[in-house]
Amino acid sequence: MLLFQESVSFKYKPNSKMTSVPPDPTFWGEEESICLPKRPRMEECEAETGDTRRTTVDVSVIIPVHNASCWLEECLQAVLNQDFTGSLELSVYDDASTDASRAVLESWKEKFEAKAVSMVISGHHSAQPRGVGYAKNQAICQSSGRYLCFQDADDVMLSQRVSLQHAAALLQPHALIGCGVRRVPEGSTERYTRWINSITPEQLLTQAYTSHGPTVIMPTWFCSRDWFCQVGPFDEGGKGVPEDLLFFYQSLRQGGGVSRVEQCMLVYRYHEQAATHSVLEETIWKLRVDFLQERVLSQWESFTIWNAGKQGRKLYRSLSPANQKKVRAFCDVDENKIQKGFYTYQDSKERPKPRIPVLHYREASSPFIICVKLDMTEGVLENNLKSLQLTEGVDYYHFN
After folding, report:
1. Which of 11, 35, 149, 220 could form a disulfide with 178 if both were Cys (CB 3.0 to 4.6 A apart)?
2. 239-274, pLDDT tens digit by residue?
3. Cis amide bond preceding 14, omega within 30
4. Predicted confidence (pLDDT) per residue in 360-397, tens digit
5. pLDDT tens digits, 279-309
C-alpha cells in the first residue's frame, strides 16, 4: 500500500507488484483520490497485494493533468513517437479536471497498447484541484520506471528526447538532466528562452540563484527514480507554491548534479493558464535570498553588492542582520549614485543607522553579488565583469 507521513525521510522503491491498470478503487475510494496532509512524506510506495503482473520498465513519462484537453492529443502523440528502444510507460494523474481531459486520456489507451507502451491513468474528482506537486507525486507513485521523464500536458517532446536524456542519466544517476527548448509562440519570453538554451554547464550550478528559477526547467527534467526518492517528494502546498524550485534547491543541497542535453528536445508552450503564473514574485524572491545566504554568503566573511539601485538595496534589506554586516559596499556605474557616497538603511533599528559606502565598480572589492539583470545592458555588465578578470562561482554570483 501507499503510506504518506509527515516524517523527514522519503524512500520510494521501484514497484514490481503493481498492475498496469489504475489503482484498486477500494484503495482510491469513490473519487480515486487520497486525502493527504498538506506536505506529505512518502515513506514507502510498494504494493502489498502480491500482484506480480507489472515488471519494472526503463522509463516512466510523468504527466500531471488539469484541464489540458486542448493540448493532450499533441502531447500524447509525441510520447508515442519516441525512438527509445527500451521499455516505456506513461503515468498520468488527472487533478480534478472539469473539461474533457479524462475522456481524451482514456481514448488513447488502445494506441499505447498497440505500441507496447503501458499507460497508467488515475485521478480525483474533488471540487478543487490539489496542485501540480500533488499530481506529480501521485503519477510517480503509480509508475514503475527506473527513470522518470517529466512532461507537462501542454508541451510536446521531440522524438529523441527520452533516448538522449536516458543515455545522459545513465552516466549521471544523481543529477537532474534537462534539454534545450523551443518556445511557442515564437518570441514569447525571449530573454528567458535564450537563457535556458545558452547557459553553460558551469552556470547550471552558479546561476541557481537568479530570478529565472531552476537552471534546467521543470518540463525538461529527467532523473533516476532513486535520486528522486532521495530528494523528494514535491511540495504539495498547491496553487502559488513553486514546487519545482523547492525540489531543485533540495537536490542541490544533497549534492545532486545538474546537466543538459544540448539539443532542443521540447516544444515549450507559453500561455496565460500556465500554473507558473500563480507563483508570486515575492515568494520566489524569499526562496532565492534564503538559498543564497545558505549556500554562498555563509561561506564569505564580507562581500559587495553590485547595484546601488532598487534591486541591490532590496537584497540588502532582505538579508539577515548577520549578513547585512558582511556587506562592505555597494558598487555601480551610475555617477549619481556614486556621488551620494553612502546608502543609509533607514529601517534599521541600530543606532546610528548603518551607512554602506557606494563605490565605482573598479574601486570595489570582490566577491560580488550581482543584482543587475543579465542580458539587459547591451553587454555592458558582461564586459565590465570580464574586464576585472573575475571567475563566476568564485568571485561573483548572479542574483538577478
Report:
1. 220
2. 889 999 999 999 999 999 999 999 999 999 986 666
3. no
4. 999 999 999 999 998 889 899 999 999 999 999 999 99
5. 889 999 999 999 999 999 999 999 999 999 9
Mean pLDDT of 3-18: 32
Q: How far apart are CA 398 and CA 400, in angstroms?
A: 6
State how far the Cα of 374 lies from the Cα of 381, in Å rounded to an integer. Answer: 8
3-state SS track over the chain: CEEEECCCCCCCCCCCCCCCCCCCHHHHCCCCCCCCCCCCEEEEECCCCCCCCCCCEEEEEEEEECCCHHHHHHHHHHHHCCCCCCCEEEEEEEECCCCCHHHHHHHCHHHHHHCCCEEEEEEECCCCCCCHHHHHHHHHHCCCEEEEEECCCCCEECCCHHHHHHHHHHHCCCEEEEEEEEEECCCCCHHHHHHHHHCCCCHHHHCCCCCCCCCCCHHHCEEEHHHHHHHCCCCCCCCCCCHHHHHHHHHHHCCCEEEEEEEEEEEEECCCCCHHHHCCHHHHHHHHHHHHHHHCHHHCCCEEEECCCHHHHHHHHHCCHHHHCCEEEEEECCHHHHHHCEEECCCCCCCCCCEEEEEEHHHCCCCEEECCCCCCCCCHHHHHHHHCCCCECCCEEECC
- Bridging pattern class, strands 175-184 and 355-360: unpaired
Per residue in 53-67, pLDDT (tens digit) is: 355 899 999 999 999
